[in-house]
Amino acid sequence: MKPRILSWLGGVLLAVLAGAAAAQPPAPGTYSEKGADTCLDCHDAESDTLTFTTAAIFKGRHGHRGNARAPFGAGGLQCEACHGPGGQHSAKGGVRKGTIVNFKRDAPGGPAARNAPCLGCHQSGARTGWHAAAHDRAGLACVDCHKLHTGNDAVLTRSTQSAVCFTCHKQQRADFLKTSAHPVNGSRSSRWAGQGQMSCSDCHAAHGSQSPAMLVKPTINQTCYSCHAEKRGPLLWEHAPVVEDCTLCHSSHGSVRQALLNKSPPLLCQQCHSVAGHPSAARTGAALPGAGGGGEIFLVAGSCTNCHSQVHGSNHPAGAKLMR
After folding, report:
1. Is residue 292 situated within a structural domain?
2. What is the pLDDT of residues 271-299, one digit of tens each?
3. DSSP states of 73-110
4. Which residues does 273 contact at the CB level (< 8 Å), separation at least 6?
5. Domain region containing 87
6. Residue 249 falls within a domain, yes or no?
7. Which residues contact 165 (CB under 8 A, 6 or more apart)?
8. How many domains in the chain?
9. DSSP run (H or E) holding 135
10. Which of 71, 171, 238, 301 lies deepest, with the highest CB count within 10 Å?
11. What is the pTM of this model?
12. CA-to-CA distance for 126 and 132, rounded, in angstroms?
């Protein structure tokens, strides 16, 4: 009887020890056994207690199983590809906080730690200049603009991209609401056209650029010529400011004057052209007919462009003064 009792007690002791070992939370760095299925036990579409859900991620590229480079592709780590090993986070009785990568603004490690999972895969193409760009210097993280747990990332869609940019760029948002503006969604021009025909990324490289204002082209003129090819030339008679810099006369985002001009003619033209010996004195309140003033009727309506209609340049043999 004694050997049997000892054997039975030994078996019970082993079972207790095994159960105690199994009850221990996994060590840090341990991946969950079921991958995304473990995460979905709590982070599902019907969760009303947790802030973040994961169901919509399957509508985007990251959740495509057919994409071998995606986290959910063949052999991928699924949720833990971005959030890190979650075995300890998901274990019953385990420590739920601080054991996975946190993408909140107050996450430990700051923007660098929040960007590390993204830059681990997205390093080529437009991201090569990120570390020298203004957005990185401003302390922004990828998730400040991009949303992954959704079927449609707003910043990647032309019709909604500007709203994301405007959350920080308040002055540009105000400019696009002025009388004359490029047809970016949300501007007056886009409302007249029925929809936004342009997006911020048509001119600016959000991930970094060696050009001024993070332009997609090396210079402001080359960027403008992407759409305004008729202004590129070469022209027989060139207007010097046009060749130098479009913004000498035009506001890039919007203006209260027609054609996005910085100033109203003839004041804009008179920044370079002298009024001496030329009928270029504007009709002001003191220079109206009968008031004894010498204002010129030529400067109503289009002002200087009433005569100098080819202000960007001319190919006409008689167009030295940009009049035809």
Report:
1. yes
2. 888 766 676 666 555 554 555 555 666 66
3. STT--TTHHHH---HHHHSTTS--SSSS---STT-TTH
4. 280
5. 53-117
6. yes
7. 155, 172, 200, 206
8. 2
9. helix 134-137
10. 71
11. 0.79
12. 12
